[in-house]
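Quick one, tokens below:
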């Protein structure tokens, strides 16, 4: 099928829902959000940025300039 739901002979970009239900593993349906896994991964991603931002000199004249320097540091 293409993205519009039309059956095609060549380049397929989609599949019907019933085929997906039959072919996909069932384990993903019962798995819920796990806060402990998310918090560990999010903390390991965020912590280096927080450490870097804490080292910035927050002495700009306007608060917006401090915010801009914070965003530029993350890049």
């Amino acid at each position: 099928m293409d993205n519009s739901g039309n059956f095609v002979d060549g380049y397929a970009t989609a599949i019907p829902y019933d085929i997906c239900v039959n072919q996909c593993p069932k384990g993903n349906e019962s798995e819920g959000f796990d806060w402990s896994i998310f918090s560990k991964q999010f903390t390991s991603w965020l912590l280096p940025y927080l450490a870097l931002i804490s080292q910035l000199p927050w002495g700009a004249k306007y608060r917006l300039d401090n915010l801009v320097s914070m965003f530029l540091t993350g890049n």
